[in-house]
Amino acid sequence: MAKTVWISMMSGHNPSFFSVQSFLRPGTVVVVLLCLVPLFAGVAGLILPALGYYPALGFDAFSTTALLNVWEPLFQWPGLSQSIWLSLFTGLTSAFLALVITLTVLSLLWGGRFWNWVTLYIAPALALPHVAFAIGLSFLIAPSGWLVRAIAPLTGWHEPPFWLTVNDPKGWSLILMLLIKSVPFLLLMSVGILHQLQPQRQLMMAQSLGYDRIQAWWKVLVPQLYRQLKLPLFAVLVYGITVVDAALVIGPQLPAPLAVLVLRWFQNPDLSFRLLASAGAIVLLIVTLAGLLFWFAVERLLAPLARMVWLNGRKQVRHPVLWLAFSTLPVLALLSIGANLVLLIWSFAGRWRFPDILPSVTTIQYWQHHASLLQEPLLLAMQLGLASSLTAVVASLVMLEYQNQRGRYWPLLLPCIALLIPQMTLFAGLPMVGELLFGAGVDQYPFLLVSFGHLLMVFPYVYLGLHGAFTSFDHRYQTVALTFGSSWSRAWWQVKWPMLKPAIVSAWAVGFSVSVVQYLPTLLLGAGRVLTVTTEAVAIGAGYDRRLAAIYGLTQALLPLLGFLFARFINRKKAWQG
Asked: Structure pTM?
């Protein structure tokens, strides 16, 4: 009977269901258009200036001369090749190391007694924004930082050593920061994937054939996990190549990564640099695609070797390399904790001379002085976060429910394609397209423009967070409710909603935190008129006032932390009620 009811619903005989279905389809079309059209518009808004067409600056005709005037200075820019190499090196290295550490930790600890410690590490590591963490890490590893102060009594140092551990020209400090932030994200994505793969059953079957647990993991589960982890991994890779906010704080400066260099061109008071910046953003897109193609090429080259290892029949081997990779996780966790602590200490430091391990004088006057200045950017960041995250949750539910009714889910690449396009390429071109289509009046609503920009980046993360819950949901529960005469809407709210509520609240928290940390959408779409705690933290974090940088870094971390705590409270309350 349940099957009959379900078939009748799909055929549209239930009026309540038909009305909902008629809303889901146009709603999905609107969401897809809002996701895809800005992507093409942003790229188009860069291609035109890169070809020498920018009416606002008087360049209103295409010509070979205009084209040469744009691209010739770009290729002659000092240090351009080093900037491109830095972007590729930092992005590829951090993504590869994060993947190795993630797979190693899962193979050694999944389902064991220490796995709960790993889950406790994930949430706070994700809650601290990149900029705030970059500020704290720079305080930790700087020549006058906490780590050097800790060993100063042993070495007899009375002055900071001449080490270049922050803003180093090779980008290792930026790689370290990206690695510490990427591993928790990949672990979180892996947990959702593994719940669908049912690892315990597969491990038991492999172990019954004589394989030890670690060999079973790498030969049975890792190939399946890697295949489904590619999209989050590529998002990590693209972010590493195109990162701007954290790179301004802890990354190389002379030369800077390409994304930072392009941003400086956009911010140059000489408006003719806009053409150069547009061409640079196109090059950044090409460099990002080159990084993805390089990853695919290496994957293809290593595939035969990996296949030989998986099929060699060896059931028990020693794993010193795995344990070496695993040993990096406690180091990364300690660095993460240390960065948070030193950030907190610096915000209250009055006098802190080298090599003292703690300040000799503490004070709250810096907090008191800047409390009033923090209120407006903090409130604005919260408003943007709520607007974009709640809209993203509704849009994701509409899209996923429509796909569910169709009985077929789309590839994750379609709704999450914004994660694979450099933010600089996307948001630098949108203002020009908006002016061409709607005139200069479009700039009169900076909050709406910035909210829309945040939504473009928040939606993929929310969709990823809800996709697993929707695909694994047992729809027989909803079907049983329908067999008792309940309408489709009532069955959804009383059966499906309570069961999906923990996943929805968690996805909202992730989306809210993603919105709070958005820097480029706020800066480029707001044109400097929308000042959030993130834009202020980046501007101050790249300076020399450590106390002020610590205050703004902690304040930026406050909103994501509150979002995750709220989600945890709601989900725990739900568990108590259950």
From this structure: 0.85
Residues 6+ apart with CB under 8 A from 129: 513, 516, 517, 534, 537, 556, 557, 560
pLDDT in tens, 269-318: 877 788 888 888 889 999 999 999 999 999 999 888 877 766 666 655 56
| Integer Cα distance of 367 and 381 in angstroms | 19
Distance between CA atoms of 433 and 423, rounded to whole angstroms?
A: 16
Contact 132, 115 (CB under 8 A): no
Tokens standing for residue 272:
């003719």
Q: Per residue, what are the HEC states of 120-158?
A: HHHHHHHHCCHHHHHHHHHHHHCCCCHHHHHHHHHHCCC
Burial class (CB in 10 A: 0-12, 13-18, 19+), 508: buried
Residues 328, 178: Cα–Cα separation, whole Å: 14
CA distance 332 to 413: 30
- Residue 92 in tokens: 């590829």
Residue 564's alpha-carbon distances to 125, 129, 284, 513, in angstroms, are: 11, 12, 33, 8
Closest residue by Cα to residue 532 from 512, 546, 552, 560? 552
Residues whose CB falls within 8 Å of the CB of residue 550, separated by 6 or more in sequence, listed in order? 135, 136, 139, 343, 344, 345, 346, 347
Q: What pLDDT band is residue 8 in, cutting at 50, 70 and 90?
A: very low
Within 10 angstroms of residue 369's Cβ, the number of other Cβ atoms is: 11
What's the token pair of residue 556? 């930026």
- Rounded Cα distance, 425 and 434, in Å: 15
What does the pLDDT look like over 348-381, one tens digit per residue? 888 888 888 888 888 888 888 888 888 888 999 9
Q: Is the pLDDT of residue 320 over 80?
A: no
Percent of the chain with pLDDT over 70: 87
Q: Radius of gyration of the chain from Cα atoms?
A: 25
- Assess contact for 255 and 106: CB atoms under 8 A: no
